[in-house]
Design goal:
The chain is an alpha/beta fold and 312 residues long. The chain is 38% helix and 14% strand.
Amino acid sequence: MKFFPRKTFEMAETPYHIPALLPETLNLLNIKPNGTYIDATFGGGGHSRAIISLLGHEGHLFSFDRDKEAAANAIDDPRFTFVLSNFRFIENFMRFHKVEAVDGIMADLGVSFHHFDSPERGFSFRADAPLDMRMNRDASLTAADIIAAADEHTLKDIFRKYADLRQPGNVAKAIVKGREDAPIDTTFRLVDAVKNAIDPRQEKKELAQIFQALRIRTNDEMADLRLFLNAARKILRPGGRLAVLTYHSVEDRIVKNFMKTGNVEGVEEKDFFGNINSPWKVITRKPVEPSQEEIERNPRSRSAKLRVAQLN
């Protein structure tokens, strides 16, 4: 397999976001110079710029992002089209652009540094800000709205499904009790409400899990992921590859199951001989993870896992 040195793509690293596992993703996508590709999660454009650098005059890249702020990073290149949309709609937009099939699709499911480092977006517990967490700021539902409206059982279910908290019920109970005194509408109010329900020895880790779970629910991320994966299968041409970077166990399990079985539920359909019938050939039997060198250079890449499959 041809290997692209990391230094080749240093120009793709912008303050908005540093893409994880960039050379590995490009290698495993097996990019053809005249191919058509989709970057389903444009963000700062790091992956997109690197993909375009490998395309010839006949190649083209479509990049999706639901956040209007990402549009400012759009690439001025005739081989590039930016689509302001949730990646769940990639099939619809490819039909709109009269593209019947593409040669490769990638998605980096991580939250951009830009979101964590913009306090007013409310993604981080490290700064006091409105409890927002919307990827698309035109969406009506914020994390504060969910905290205000959900009952204890619903909150427990959110923290059980979307985080690996030891005691999701205790966190849910603490939130319900905390909002009786005053609305939990800022990041620090949420931290204050749950501080007695988490292990002080694991404070940062458990706060990160709580914020992660609320972010996933606020943006309906797992529903988006399932719809995206099904759409990707429909618009990839045979031999085309799907590359997905995940950052936590919930989304990684969905991607792994989809690539193994061909469905997001992970239901195995077997032939007469007991072999799993799947439209995919899994390229990465084990997920590709960052090297120690990359983690030292970009600590936020630590939890990244890259999975790649090829459509039969």
